[in-house]
Amino acid sequence: MIYFLIILNLLGSVKFSNLESIYRNCKDALESNNFIDSMYSIQPVPNGTIAGITCSLTAEDEIITEIGNDVEQNKRLTVQSGTLSIKIKYANLTNTELRVLIKSSGICSQQMSLTLRNVHDKFISFTFLDGKVYKLRHFNDGICQCLTSEICDKLQNRMENCKNVGKNQGYSQSYDLSGEISVLPHRLPLIQTRYGDINGGQEYAKHHIGPLSCSMILKLKSPLILNSYCKNYNSSFLNDNDSTTCIKFKTKFVKLKLDYTEKINFTIGKESVFEIHPYVNTSIGKISLCNQDTPTSFTCSSYSRYIYVSLWTTLSNDIEVCEIQNLT
Ligand SMILES: *[C@@H]1O[C@H](CO)[C@@H](O)[C@H](O)[C@H]1NC(C)=O
Ligand SMILES: *[C@@H]1O[C@H](CO)[C@@H](O)[C@H](O)[C@H]1NC(C)=O
Ligand SMILES: *[C@@H]1O[C@H](CO)[C@@H](O)[C@H](O)[C@H]1NC(C)=O
Ligand SMILES: *[C@@H]1O[C@H](CO)[C@@H](O)[C@H](O)[C@H]1NC(C)=O
Ligand SMILES: *[C@@H]1O[C@H](CO)[C@@H](O)[C@H](O)[C@H]1NC(C)=O
Ligand SMILES: *[C@@H]1O[C@H](CO)[C@@H](O)[C@H](O)[C@H]1NC(C)=O
């Protein structure tokens, strides 16, 4: 009888595991399902909204979390007078739930395209989840002045602005924009658009707003050693999951570059005494130090794709590092 019940239980759990299982984030969902790419039921906050989120693993061992939105895409948008503001919801999550999910999903990016006809740019603005509001031509995060970064990428100049393809700089400006939105990752996603001077006829806006796409590394890759005089050290010993293989740097200062991960931990040589300062550096060169949780573990903000680490000592010993791990 007991065996029968156990078997029944097993059958039940197998049968319903994909349908009824609910996960906190894509990492949990994929790890519980042999990394099968799929849409999973994700509930970022206990008892909160359960959202359908697309989770996948890339060939580079990155977990991709794709959060869809409720935008009516490519619709011709007009308004009789004043401005038209459109709020954007992501997988029905509240802003708080969205923040929780993003925090465990890595570094995010978002694509959009926007067609504007015979408008004035001063009536066009965009609001992001962190509260930042940018006007069409005033994106000041150092990525591109324009809403989308394609023009800056093409001309390799971060100071470029949106190209007006319309007749004048006043009330007849027109734009055909598409590409990645020019804000630092921690601001995303776009949660509201506002368009004015779109009274119909020749004047309108039309947008396509992509899902929020976040990428998180499953396993930290070997760090890059940035000091030119340290090039002969083999950094793969630092992430080989073996804390007995160490590197002894014969110098008082070492600078490393790692892929972004929210939490990192350092295992250092037993005899070694030195300072560890991990930080992120935004595109405008703004430095944000990671928070020190224990003497060797840190939490970093998702301002950029990379974490830099300064290791230095004023003592006469060497800087010995054995392992650098991401904690989850
Ligand atoms: C979730 O809901 C259940 C029942 O509605 C309640 O007992 C439980 O305390 C709730 N948990 C949280 C974390 O709110
Ligand atoms: C989002 O929530 C609304 C209202 O609760 C519901 O009508 C709608 O079906 C939900 N949409 C999705 C995609 O779950
Ligand atoms: C670095 O060490 C690893 C073993 O941990 C080895 O597989 C790799 O070939 C070495 N790379 C270089 C450039 O020596
Ligand atoms: C790291 O090594 C430990 C044993 O030393 C092992 O239990 C663990 O699974 C390894 N982790 C990875 C990611 O290889
Ligand atoms: C970080 O690494 C150290 C040294 O290996 C270890 O003692 C410590 O438990 C780790 N900390 C965390 C939070 O995993
Ligand atoms: C931060 O990045 C900027 C621009 O890439 C660079 O010039 C600067 O040296 C970096 N600062 C640090 C402390 O790494």
Overall form? globular
The rounded distance between the terminal residues' Cα atoms is: 41 Å
The strands making up the biggest β-sheet line up spatially as 1-2-3-4-11-6-9
What are the bound molecules?
Answer: 2-acetamido-2-deoxy-beta-D-glucopyranose
Q: Topology as H/E string?
A: HEHEEEEHEEEHEEEEEEEEEEEEE
Radius of gyration: 24 Å
Mean pLDDT: 91
Low-pLDDT sequence parts: 1-17
Count up the helices.
Answer: 4
Number of strands: 21
Largest sheet: 7 strands, mixed
Strand content: 35-45%
Helicity, as a percent range: 10-25%
Signal peptide: 1-16
Keywords: Signal
Please explain how this structure is put together.
Keywords: Signal. This protein is mainly beta and 328 residues long. Among the domains are: 70-90 and 108-211, no CATH class; 224-326, Sandwich (Jelly Rolls). It contains four helices and 21 strands. The chain is globular. It starts with a helix and ends with a strand. It binds 2-acetamido-2-deoxy-beta-D-glucopyranose (6 copies). One 2-acetamido-2-deoxy-beta-D-glucopyranose binds next to loops.
Topology:
Elements: H1 2-20, E1 22-23, H2 26-31, E2 38-42, E3 51-57, E4 62-67, E5 83-87, H3 95-103, E6 107-119, E7 125-128, E8 133-135, H4 150-155, E9 173-180, E10 190-196, E11 204-217, E12 224-225, E13 247-249, E14 253-259, E15 263-268, E16 275-281, E17 287-289, E18 291-294, E19 297-299, E20 306-312, E21 319-326
Parallel strand pairs: 1-2
Antiparallel strand pairs: 2-3, 3-4, 4-11, 5-10, 6-9, 6-11, 7-8, 7-10, 12-14, 13-21, 14-20, 15-19, 15-21, 16-17, 16-20, 18-19
Keywords: Signal
Signal peptide: 1-16
